[in-house]
Structure to design on (835 residues):
């Protein structure tokens, strides 16, 4: 029996400690359509897709596949229901062959051994579905990014899925490769495979999707046919009406130019980057993931080297030979991934909060000074609980992020580079962090703000430069600054627009 | 988060922190007290002063080595498996260099050990070679080199010369009824504790061990820190190697055998996490003492040395298993 809706979600909910990541979502996906899921970071798209992939056993609500109620409590259950995922990060084992990757978990056997011939035959059959002509015996490492992506799709198709979920499938592809991918998606559609497509690239979504669903703050906002919306309306729906957020008062206007970057280049990452930050100014960098923003930040603060250009602070060329040197000259860099690069999770709050300061000084403060310094920063950031000996893992995400910010504020930086300073943080902590940032620039310091959180970028920044594929492609002044202008500038694809 | 959920989490946290405390400095003291009680039951002579030195003497050199290993483990790089070869080499070099006088001979022995430490540290810190594999290979190579250079024979200090006589006396001095090497061990412990707890180096080593990427993006010169940890370890190992040569009156290839495993056991039993960044010198001292106590008790109870080796292996596995379990439940190395 064929049901019109291949996939139906009813009141689907997934709760993380402290947040509702997916909040009573109802969604119907029709057989054979390309259905785009749109939303900002943190809107709940990824969590929703993870539920479909069987990553959680504690969601509530119902999932119907082809009209039948389905249990998706483990990845193998999801696969057996005909749902396959293609992840942003490829899930291939590089050292294994193409064939082994495609047939992983279902390698044909003859007795104790793997039937190489059958494996090759089956792998070729899967590869032909995506129009890829490579030797199945070749290791995946030898393939280009694009070919690896196609192998990933072939692997998913090997299980004859009825629903194929693609999460940002084009982030690593060139323009022409994207076109080939779209041709393959068209073919799959004709064969009756339903595709759920997640992407930040508006232009792409408008080219490929039949219908789209907009999500915001874990809720479904609307599902509409693509013909009935235009990019501007879509962006509006993704962002929603500005929440009654108290606007933070800035007490000073930007002064003289303090931090300057001239013609900065790191080959393969970014090219000819030029900008300045004035005293008391917050400069935002907007752009999509992979545009080169984090790479730029790592170079600025001395973790990575650069090949050409200058970095100047107060007219003096920065001694850039190590991160510790740039720290001593007044730079600080709050890394984007708090758990991997930000905090030593099993050490204490005080240990983490004072770590950067101790490194900068090359020695420890006395016990009393340590305590005083911790207390004053904990107070400023309203750390809760304000216990110096508590392990970082035992704080909530928002309070962990406060510790991370405190770690860099404690070094009394002249230039603070912030990379996603409030990712995955609740509204209250976000407000406190924003206030601390504004307090810093109010005393004449410079802040470089990298954020994918558009409301944050727009409300905090004095100016925003847009970065795309390693280049600065535009600057938006305070008077023009809005979420619309930033998102359009960041995701605009000159070629794609030329088609319209 | 709902109320019962929060309560359950709190309960779990409490349980974990209690178990974790078993491995802290306090925990090791409790273990020592328990072992002393067991020893008293096994033998009435257990608490005599003589027996106290019987417990400490065999583990003094181990204590010096374990102090060094602690720097590596604390820095997140497990252990230096070239310890046996470094001990053998520094001892043999010191004996062979006795023509240079006592100071010269000791310096040559230390220099040999420090050179190996620099090589280990450079390859592991700067080229990021796997510490276990590399130091295992280093041990093998050094062992071969030593045998090749000496033609496979042991070297003995020449007692007839003043240098030779002094060299043999090096490990035999006493102060206030306590062996000089025990004082030396305690002095080094104080120094190590100061390095770990009170200096910028100690703080940076801790951060490197607890979270390498965090340290690297917080301005810690991680490579240099790791090099230093291997350097310190091999310096202390060389000290122990020279003293062992003096104690056994010979420089031989087998001098350092077993010290690698015993040292890492002492370090882990003393509460230094194999994942790095957690532990203390006090704990390591306790770990060494526990090994001494267990050895002594087993000897008093009439166990042979083979049985003792098996027992030590079992203890190591149990402690590591328990700590890994704790770390996993604490959410540090989940999945």
């Amino acid at each position: 029996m064929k049901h019109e809706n291949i996939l139906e979600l009813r009141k689907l909910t997934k709760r993380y400690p402290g947040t509702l990541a997916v909040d009573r979502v109802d969604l119907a996906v029709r057989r054979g359509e390309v259905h785009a899921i749109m939303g900002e970071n943190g809107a709940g798209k990824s969590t929703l897709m993870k539920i479909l992939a069987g990553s959680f056993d504690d969601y509530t609500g119902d999932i119907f596949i082809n009209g039948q109620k389905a249990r998706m409590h483990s990845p193998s259950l999801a696969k057996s229901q005909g749902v396959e995922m293609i992840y942003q990060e490829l899930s291939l084992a590089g050292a294994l062959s193409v064939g082994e990757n495609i047939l992983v978990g279902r390698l044909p056997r003859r007795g104790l051994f793997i039937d190489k011939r059958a494996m090759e035959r089956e792998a070729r059959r899967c590869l032909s579905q995506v129009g890829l002509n490579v030797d199945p015996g070749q290791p995946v490492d030898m393939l280009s990014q694009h070919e690896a992506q196609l192998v990933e799709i072939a692997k998913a198709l090997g299980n004859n899925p009825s629903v194929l979920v693609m999460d940002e499938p084009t982030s690593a592809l060139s323009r022409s490769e994207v076109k080939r991918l779209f041709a393959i998606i068209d073919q799959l559609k004709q064969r009756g495979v339903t595709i759920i497509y997640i992407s930040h690239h508006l232009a792409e979504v408008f080219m490929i999707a039949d219908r789209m669903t907009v999500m915001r703050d874990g809720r479904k906002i609307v599902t509409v046919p693509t013909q009935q919306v235009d990019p501007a309306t879509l962006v509006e729906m993704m962002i929603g009406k500005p929440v009654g957020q108290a606007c933070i008062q800035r007490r000073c206007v930007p002064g003289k130019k303090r931090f300057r970057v001239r013609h900065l280049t790191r080959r393969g990452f970014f090219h000819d980057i030029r900008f300045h930050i004035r005293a008391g100014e917050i400069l935002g960098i907007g752009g999509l993931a992979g545009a080169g923003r984090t790479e730029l930040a790592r170079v600025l603060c001395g973790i990575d080297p650069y090949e050409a250009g200058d970095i100047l602070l107060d007219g003096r060329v920065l001694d850039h030979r190590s991160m510790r040197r740039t720290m001593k000259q007044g730079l600080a860099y709050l890394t984007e991934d708090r758990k991997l690069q930000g905090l030593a999770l099993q050490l204490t709050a005080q240990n983490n909060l004072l770590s950067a300061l101790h490194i900068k000084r090359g020695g420890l403060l006395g016990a009393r000074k340590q305590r005083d310094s911790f207390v004053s920063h904990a107070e400023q950031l309203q750390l809760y609980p304000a216990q110096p000996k508590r392990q970082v893992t035992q704080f909530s995400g928002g309070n962990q992020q406060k510790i991370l910010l405190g770690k860099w504020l404690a070094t009394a930086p002249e230039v603070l580079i912030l990379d996603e300073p409030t990712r995955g943080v609740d509204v209250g902590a976000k407000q406190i962090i924003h206030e601390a940032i504004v307090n810093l620039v109010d005393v004449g310091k410079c802040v470089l703000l990298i954020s994918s959180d558009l409301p944050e970028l727009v409300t905090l920044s004095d100016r925003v430069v847009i970065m795309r594929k390693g280049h600065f492609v535009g600057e938006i002044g305070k008077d023009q600054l809005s979420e619309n202008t930033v998102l359009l500038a960041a995701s605009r694809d000159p070629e794609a627009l030329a088609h319209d | 988060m709902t109320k019962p959920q929060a309560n359950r989490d709190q309960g779990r946290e409490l349980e974990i922190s209690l178990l974790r405390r078993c491995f802290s400095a306090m925990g090791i003291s409790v273990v020592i007290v328990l072992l002393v009680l067991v020893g008293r039951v096994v033998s009435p002579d257990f608490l005599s002063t003589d027996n106290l030195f019987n417990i400490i003497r065999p583990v003094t050199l181990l204590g010096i080595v374990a102090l060094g290993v602690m720097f590596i483990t604390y820095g997140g790089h497990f252990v230096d498996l070239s310890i046996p070869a470094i001990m053998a080499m520094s001892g043999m070099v010191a004996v062979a260099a006795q023509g240079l006088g006592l100071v010269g001979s000791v310096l040559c022995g230390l220099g040999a050990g420090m050179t190996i430490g620099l090589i280990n540290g450079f390859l592991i810190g700067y080229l990021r070679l796997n510490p276990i594999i590399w130091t295992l290979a280093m041990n093998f190579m050094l062992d071969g080199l030593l045998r090749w250079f000496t033609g496979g024979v042991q070297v003995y200090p020449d007692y007839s010369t003043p240098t030779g006589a002094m060299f043999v006396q090096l490990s035999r001095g006493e102060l206030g009824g306590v062996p000089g090497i025990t004082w030396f061990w305690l002095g080094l412990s104080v120094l190590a504790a100061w390095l770990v707890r009170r200096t910028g180096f100690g703080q940076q080593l801790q951060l490197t061990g607890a979270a390498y990427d965090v340290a690297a993006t917080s301005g810690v010169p991680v490579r240099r820190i790791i090099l230093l940890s291997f350097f310190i370890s091999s310096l202390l190992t060389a000290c122990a190697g020279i003293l062992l040569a003096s104690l056994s009156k010979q420089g031989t290839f087998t001098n350092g055998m077993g010290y690698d495993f015993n040292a890492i056991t002492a370090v882990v039993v003393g509460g230094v996490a194999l994942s790095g960044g957690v532990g203390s010198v006090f704990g390591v001292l306790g770990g060494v003492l526990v090994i001494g106590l267990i050895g002594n008790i087993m000897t008093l109870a009439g166990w042979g040395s083979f049985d003792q080796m098996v027992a030590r292996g079992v203890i190591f596995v149990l402690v590591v298993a328990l700590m890994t379990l704790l770390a996993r439940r604490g959410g540090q190395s989940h999945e």
Notes: Residues 1-11, 331-335 of chain B have pLDDT under 50 and may be disordered. The longest helix of chain B spans residues 222-248. Residues 42-329 of chain B form one domain. The first strand of chain B starts at residue 174 and ends at 175.
